[in-house]
């Protein structure tokens, strides 16, 4: 056995790097201090800007919710009044006054098809041309195609000291009816709704929302101070000195906070967040970035140091040749340049580093394989895998399968009872593959189940999950979802679609059709998207077949897609296949089509058969 002899370092050789090291250290420290100071100022400003955006976002969200509730309440009253008027032959002042008292509105005006008020609870309004005023002209849209219109809460044109909200609805006889109410009735209608909107809302981690009425009495506050004056919070708003939408500081419940307020429908909406929380976010950002700076400056210093040591051209070329071989993956290359003490030490260091790198690569490969195997097991354990899952329920049967393209994937399915008679079931496909997709999948799955089990409708589940997934989605990932609720007693399925492939239904007579609906936007694609729900009726023996695009987009060596047509053919052909074998038959047909081509996408399927309504005799 032979080994490389260690060459003794000649301590008499001149170390050309010593003086350079001193100056390099001084420059690095100076640059580090300067950049850290700049970073502190920049992150302070950034933290405040982020706080402003956070406060604005929460205020706008609550403001829009209050406006929607107000619009809905007033439009409901106006629609009821219109129904009353449509049922009478003559509209008299007495009738309008009676309706005004019955529905507790401030005034009612009836406008003909020319836009002229021909009946009103205010005689002064008679024969008024709606098109002649800026505010009243807004309702002229009801004479040009719209069937209803709601105006924002604002001071009326004839008396700025009075604020009201108006809505209009078309009349069957032509023209439309207009009804309005003031803040007292509006407050009576939606105060409890406002409390529910903001009581559990957090701004950041420790912030909150406070809503006060026109008298500065608290309507909603997470500390339960409803009905008390806003002063109990320690917050005082001077509307003359504090502009709406501008950030100011105040002590709220004994803690110094950033605050912002806006007015909406007679309410003042206030968002607050502790300054300590904002400072903490800044400090963390500075700490992380400073750590990265230390690493960057350290690496930069080492690189410059190495360059200075390579003053002898021949030795530089020899070291570069060796390093080039190592960079190409030839990790058995040995660097043996020893003309100077520095080069001898560098040679030894490079050789030692390569040995360590080879060991690290080997260890990392083994660790990654083990972690991927564990991740796959965790992912599959999160999905229902015991079939039949509900052996005591005879109204339906359900079966699902998932084959990932990589060790872990982004597809998933789920099903669970949300009450005694309703089964929630879904299938989804996350953008991307591997660990990031699997993590996003687990988040989406958890959110959907949590919202569904809270009693939300299927459309609200997708709406809330979309908003939650949009938060902090810096990676730009998204997920398509088809989700339904099966009424096991009637066979009715209520469903919503967030950009997913529409399922197929195989009827008991063997015919196959696609479930038609307009798909909404994918989840995490854009905030505040509202999803629509649809219904279908399953009959005895019908099978609802859900799948991801890994089925229809399976590709063979000729770059041909499997397609929906082949999938329908399998369902139509295998009419005798029960629910337990249908997914297996489809997967076998996909495999036969793809052949030896690699699987490019996850293949996930879920089949649900409605058998008998509960209690029906076999």
Task: Explain what the structure shows.
- The chain is α+β, with helices and mostly antiparallel strands and 618 residues long.
- Among the domains are: 89 residues, Beta-Lactamase, CATH 3.30.450; 67 residues; 229 residues, PPM-type phosphatase domain (Phosphatase 2c, domain 1, 4-Layer Sandwich), CATH 3.60.40.
- The strands form four sheets. Strands 1, 2, 3, 4, 5 and 6 form a six-stranded antiparallel sheet that branches. Strands 7, 8, 9, 10, 11 and 12 form a six-stranded antiparallel sheet that branches.
- The longest helix has 69 residues.
- The N terminus is likely disordered.
According to CATH, what is the topology of the domain at 382-610? Phosphatase 2c, domain 1
Q: Please tell me what the overall shape is.
A: flat
Q: Can you say what the CATH homologous superfamily of the domain at 382-610 is?
A: PPM-type phosphatase domain
Fraction of residues in helices?
Answer: 40-55%
Largest sheet, strands/sense/barrel: 6 strands, antiparallel
CATH class bucket of the domain at 382-610: Alpha Beta
Structural class: alpha+beta
- Low-pLDDT runs of 5+ residues are 1-9
Q: Which architecture of the domain at 382-610 would the CATH scheme give at its second level?
A: 4-Layer Sandwich
| Through-space gap between termini | 84 Å
Rg over C-alpha atoms, rounded to the nearest angstrom: 35 Å
Approximately what portion of the residues adopt beta-strand conformation?
15-25%
User: pLDDT average, as an integer?
Assistant: 84
Number of helices: 11
The total count of strands amounts to 22
């Amino acid at each position: 056995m032979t080994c490389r002899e260690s060459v003794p370092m000649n301590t008499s050789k001149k170390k050309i790097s010593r003086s350079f090291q001193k100056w390099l250290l001084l420059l690095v420290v100076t640059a580090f201090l300067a950049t850290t100071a700049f970073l502190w100022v920049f992150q302070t400003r950034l933290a405040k800007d982020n706080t402003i955006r956070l406060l604005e976002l929460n205020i706008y969200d609550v403001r829009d919710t209050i406006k929607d509730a107000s619009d809905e309440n007033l439009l409901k009253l106006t629609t009821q009044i219109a129904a009353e008027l449509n049922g009478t032959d003559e509209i008299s002042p007495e009738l309008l006054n009676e309706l005004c008292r019955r529905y507790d509105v401030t005034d009612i005006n009836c406008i003909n098809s020319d836009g002229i008020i021909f009946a009103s609870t205010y005689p002064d309004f008679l024969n008024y041309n709606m098109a002649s005023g800026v505010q009243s002209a807004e309702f002229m849209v009801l004479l040009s195609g719209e069937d209803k219109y709601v105006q924002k809460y604002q001071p009326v044109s004839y008396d700025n000291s009075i604020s009201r909200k108006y809505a209009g609805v078309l009349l069957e006889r032509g023209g439309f009816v207009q009804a309005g109410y003031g803040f007292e009735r509006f407050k009576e209608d939606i105060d409890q709704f406002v409390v529910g909107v903001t009581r559990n809302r957090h701004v950041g981690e420790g912030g909150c929302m406070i809503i006060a009425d026109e008298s500065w009495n608290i309507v909603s506050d997470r500390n339960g101070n409803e009905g008390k004056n806003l002063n109990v919070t320690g917050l005082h708003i001077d509307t003359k000195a504090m502009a709406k939408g501008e950030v100011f500081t105040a002590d709220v419940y004994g803690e110094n906070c950033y605050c912002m307020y806006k007015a909406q429908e007679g309410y003042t909406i206030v968002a607050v967040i502790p300054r300590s929380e904002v400072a903490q976010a800044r400090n963390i950002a500075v700490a992380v970035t400073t750590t990265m700076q230390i690493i960057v400056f350290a690496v930069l210093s080492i690189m410059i140091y190495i360059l200075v040591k390579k003053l002898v051209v021949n030795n530089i070329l020899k070291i570069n040749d060796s390093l080039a071989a190592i960079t190409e993956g030839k990790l058995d290359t040995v660097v043996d340049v020893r003309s100077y003490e520095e080069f001898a030490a560098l040679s030894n260091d490079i050789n030692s580093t390569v040995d360590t790198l080879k060991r690290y690569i080997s260890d990392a490969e083994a660790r990654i394989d083990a972690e991927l195997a564990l991740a796959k097991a965790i992912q599959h354990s999160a999905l229902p895998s015991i079939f039949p899952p509900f052996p005591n329920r005879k109204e339906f049967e359900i079966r699902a399968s998932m084959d990932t393209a990589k060790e872990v994937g982004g597809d998933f399915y789920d099903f669970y009872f949300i009450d005694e008679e309703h089964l929630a079931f879904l299938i989804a496909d996350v953008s991307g593959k591997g660990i990031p997709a699997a993590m996003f999948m687990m988040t989406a799955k958890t959110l959907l189940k949590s919202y569904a089990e809270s009693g939300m409708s299927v459309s609200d589940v997708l709406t809330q999950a979309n908003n939650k997934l949009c938060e902090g989605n810096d990676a730009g990932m998204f997920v398509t979802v088809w989700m339904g609720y099966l009424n096991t007693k009637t066979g009715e399925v209520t469903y919503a679609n967030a950009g997913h492939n529409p399922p197929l239904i195989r009827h008991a007579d063997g015919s196959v059709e696609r479930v038609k609906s307009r798909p909404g936007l994918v989840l995490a694609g854009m905030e505040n998207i509202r999803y629509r729900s649809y219904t279908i009726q399953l009959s005895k023996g019908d099978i609802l077949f859900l799948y991801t695009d890994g089925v229809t987009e399976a590709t063979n060596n000729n770059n041909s897609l499997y397609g929906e047509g082949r999938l329908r053919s399998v369902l139509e052909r295998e009419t005798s296949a029960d629910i337990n074998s249908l997914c297996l038959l489809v997967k076998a047909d996909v495999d036969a089509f793809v052949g030896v081509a690699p699987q490019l996408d996850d293949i996930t399927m879920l089949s649900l058969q409605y058998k008998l309504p509960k209690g029906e005799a076999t």
